[in-house]
Amino acid sequence: MRKDKKIKVMKNKVKRGRPAGSTKSKVLSGGTVVKTWKPETVLMDDLEFNKDLFVPMPTGKRIDSLLSSEGGLMKGCNLAFIGDPGVGKTTVILDVLADLQAKGQKVLFISGEMNSIDMHGYVKRFPKFGQVPILFLGDYIEKDPMVILKSVLTEGYDVVMIDSMAEVCTNIVDFHGGTNKNAESQVLNILEKHNKGGNQAELNTTFLIIQQVTKAGTFAGSNRFKHMLTGMARMQFVEGGRCISFSKNRRGGQMDRLFFRVDTTKNVSWLHTEAVNAE
């Protein structure tokens, strides 16, 4: 009979990553010693979480219905955004970030592509971007990018935007050598740590990540990266304008296309929804 017990997840910690298990040694014929590993299963009814972990972070805009069924961005998640060149990926996610900041969330923009001069143009069109804290990785070209990433995230943030994962990994490879796959793995380790609240403020950080696509137009990244994603969104030009839609969202957000405009000032304009399979 199973012993009745509750496994408490303290504060805002999330039990993720490799499952627990036990290791034993076994002696084979001939005297060879090998180690065997027995995994342990978990019952969700035995887990307890801080209720605050499941309180959404709303922007107050129409995109909230796409981000989750709760109506807003959820904590401790990773969302990737891909899309057509020039469709407005950076602008849209910055707009979300600024709206969340206005609602009291602690946010950070990590830019691997732009510099402060480029960013000035954004702020002229969208003044609210001027109050978003930004780390320009290009300002630390002679420094170890892994040290910079770990240092800036130490204090803890509710939401962090990364533009883009590919550029961050390229910076790591340029400094350390090695492969993009290895660099990506190191970045994912950092993301997972902060998803779990591994920072000074013990905040379950949500990451909004711009990612490149393959020549075939599909998501570029390792299987681990894909599995760590709570949601995958695509922005594209279609007949009728620009839209964003999720092909995957574990938090149950609306799966329809949401049309938007970025040729206005001050805010991204969210327009109307349309079923993905609509002609």
Search tags:
disordered N terminus; two-stranded parallel sheet; 25% strand; 9-stranded mixed beta sheet; alpha/beta; 279 residues
Description:
This protein is α/β, with parallel strands linked by helices. It has 7 helices and 13 strands. It has helices at residues 64-67, 89-102, 116-125, 145-153, 165-176, 180-195, 223-228; strands at 7-8, 21-27, 33-39, 47-48, 78-83, 107-111, 134-136, 159-163, 206-210, 231-238, 241-249, 257-261, 269-274. Helix 5 packs across helix 6 (180-195). The radius of gyration is 21 Å and the shape is globular. The relative contact order is 0.17. Mean pLDDT is 88; it is low at 1-8 and 14-18.
Radius of gyration: 21 Å
Residue stretches low in confidence (pLDDT < 50, at least 5 long) are 1-8, 14-18
User: Residue-averaged pLDDT, rounded?
Assistant: 88
- Number of DSSP E strands: 13
N-to-C SSE string, H for helix and E for strand: EEEEHEHEHEHEHHEHEEEE
The strand line-up of the biggest sheet is 7-6-8-9-5-10-11-12-13
Query: Roughly what fraction of the amino acids lie in strands?
Result: 25-35%
Rough outline: globular
Give the structural class. alpha/beta
Portion of residues within helices: 25-40%
Main sheet: strands, sense, barrel: 9 strands, mixed
Distance between the termini: 56 Å
Count of runs of 4 or more consecutive helical residues = 7
